[in-house]
Design brief:
mainly beta; 11 strands; 3 helices; about 160 residues; disordered N terminus; globular; OB fold (Dihydrolipoamide Acetyltransferase, E2P); about 10% helix; single chain; six-stranded mixed beta sheet
Length: about 160
């Protein structure tokens, strides 16, 4: 069973799955505001390495994270199926939009809590603290991201 501190009860069991390298990852669907075709963000000085830049979204400035770099991987050029997920994260009791670069969007899955296992403490391609859990879907593991830890805006605010 998944640790309650990492559970994202907002998702209602529905997750958007996407590819990042060879991994299949997922976020609770209620965190996803929209999916954009990839466009190169405008670089920002003094930003952490995993902040690719910013984009203009209907008149608002939205920071864009390179999820691969956030997970300690080497940055890669965006492929033809690359997308920017616009996710909502909470910071100082307010909702904020954040762009996340992924290699491709796959599908929406319904995953019950009974199908979610705790991530192993070692040996995975992602640090366990970034995961809400692992779900087995059609013979493959899907890593369910812990959005609070992965998209920590407090960490971004300190490092900029």
């Amino acid at each position: 069973m998944v640790n309650s501190r990492a559970s994202d009860t907002r998702d209602g069991g529905q997750y958007l799955t996407f590819a990042l390298g060879r991994d299949t990852l997922a976020l609770g669907i209620l965190r996803i505001r929209e999916i954009l075709s990839y466009r190169e963000p405008t670089a920002v000085q003094r930003a952490p390495a995993h902040v690719r830049g910013v984009i203009n979204l209907r008149g608002g400035v939205v920071p864009v994270l390179d999820l691969a770099v956030r997970f300690g991987r080497t940055p890669e050029p965006a492929g033809r199926r690359a997308c920017i997920l616009i996710v909502e994260v909470e910071f100082k009791e307010q909702q904020h939009a954040l762009g996340v670069i992924v290699d491709a969007v796959n599908e929406v899955l319904v995953i019950s809590q009974a199908d979610i296992e705790a991530p192993p403490p070692f040996g995975g391609s992602l640090r366990p603290e970034f995961l809400q859990g692992l779900a087995r879907v059609r013979g493959r593991f899907v890593a369910l991201l812990d959005a609070v830890r992965v998209f920590n805006l407090g960490e971004l605010a300190v490092s900029v």
